[in-house]
Each structure stands twice: as structure tokens, then as C-alpha cells.
ABC transporter permease (Actinoplanes flavus), 301 residues
Amino acid sequence: MSDANLITVAEAPDVSGRSRSLAGDAWADLRRNKIFWISAVLVVVILLMAFVPSLFTSADPGACALSNKHKGPSGGAIFGYDFQGCDVFARTIYGTRASIEVGILSTLMAGLLGLIFGLSAGYFGGTTDAVLSRVTDIMLGVPFLLGAVVFSGRLSGSEDDGVWAVTLTLGVLTWTSAARVMRSSVIAVKSQDYVAAGRMLGASPGRLMFRHILPNSMASFIVVLTILLGTNIAAEATLSYLGVGLKGDAVSWGLQIAEAQDYARIAAHPLIWPSVFLAATVLAFIMLGDAIRDAFDPKLR
């Protein structure tokens, strides 16, 4: 018998004799969960707006005419015009891309850092765990908003749009929760019998980590990243609103909100619609993460 034959996912036969797995049970729960389907549909629509905006509007977000300044909704611009005479609907649709790009890239970066720190700390334990855990604690002690303002301001150049500066800033500051979840999952999984059996059969540490432990530690980790994606989108909008995020010719919900706030009493629609889209996007990703977490958590069964 080789360690390749070890069962690394908890399975049990059901009443019909077919094998059941955690993933199969989770998917069965998700299919019956209305919150999952609502959030999933919202996420799909948001991704389409981000990467195929022409499906939703043929207007140019950069085509502005001062003669249309602060005009309300009409047949040509269903969300009206902003203080520069730009189509609010077109700018809101095209603003999705920057927010989603920053959110996805920063979440992938945070996930990679969290995976490295959490897997190493959980598997090796001892001094490695102590050192990496202290590094994580130090990062948790950094005030997020203060750190984001300082890092983004230092990384952003005067001629770029700030996308990479904000992405790196959020990636560096938001990996700690993912690392903690991965560490806890690895510690729980490495005590399982199939890991001990693999070790007795002579499996190398690398094989144990990446073949047996990591795949069975990913469920909670993926859930955390899904929720983190929503919070990073909100963080990008916050930094852009404060003037240390996206800038220049970038089209972003945070920038739109910042520009519209001074004219809110004259015309509220340029402020309302980007805010609604931002809130719906963040809520969709958080609800999706919560639904997946509930499906994969055996305590809730």
C-alpha cells in the first residue's frame, strides 16, 4: 500500500451505497440556499460589467459636456449627468472594472502570503510557528487605514493611475486573516490518521504538505478569501475617496463618490448610484462567502 492510495477527503457511503464527500454535501446544501443563488447571480452580473461593459452601455464614460451639468435622468442617460456633464450610468458601469481588478489582484496577493505563512506555521510548528505568528501579530497591530494611507502614498507615482499601488497596499495589509485560518486548518488536518499513515509510509514533508494536508485545508481558506474580496473592494473605494487610491484618468466608484459629495445638495444622483453599486458589490461577495462557509461547516449540519 502506498500513500497515493490514502483517502484524504472524508467520505462515507450514503443509504444508496454511493460515497459521500464534504464537497458533495456542501454543493447539495448550496443548491438549496437562496442566498447563494442571489449572491452568485449578482457576482456574475458584476463581473460582466467589469470585463464586458459594452453589454450594458454604449456611452463613452469620458465623453462629457458642461451643457449637461447636473441634469437629471433622461432617455439618453438613465442615471443623469454629473458636475462635468458626464453620463453617470456609463461611468458607474465602467467604474466596476477598476474596483474589481484591484479587489481580485489584492485578494490573490493576500491569499498567496496567507497560504505561505499559514501552511508553514501550521505544518512545521515550534520555532517556525512562533516566529511567523509574531509577524502576523505585528501586522495585525498596524492600524489598517493609517497603514493604507502611508503605503499607498509612498508607492503611488505622480503619473500612474494608482492601481498597482493600491493593489500592493491592500495585499500587504490584509493577508493576516487568511494566514490564521490556514494555520488553524493545517494544524487540525495534520493530526488526522491518513497524514500519520503517509508519514509512516515514508512520504516526504513536501508530499504530505501539498498532496494530503493542503487540499483538505482549503475550504475555510477559500471562504475567507471570498469575503476578503468584498472588503478589499470597499477598501479601494475608501482610499480613492480619501485621495490616496486611484487617481488621474481612472474611473472608480470611490472617485465618483468623492467628486460628487460637494454637489450632493444640488444633484444627489451622481453620489447615490456609485454608492448603491459599491454597496451591492461588497454585499454580494460577503453573502457568497457566508453561504459557502455555512455549507462547508460541519457544525451547522
The longest helix spans residues 88-124. The two ends are 34 Å apart (CA to CA). Confidence is low (pLDDT under 50) at residues 1-13.
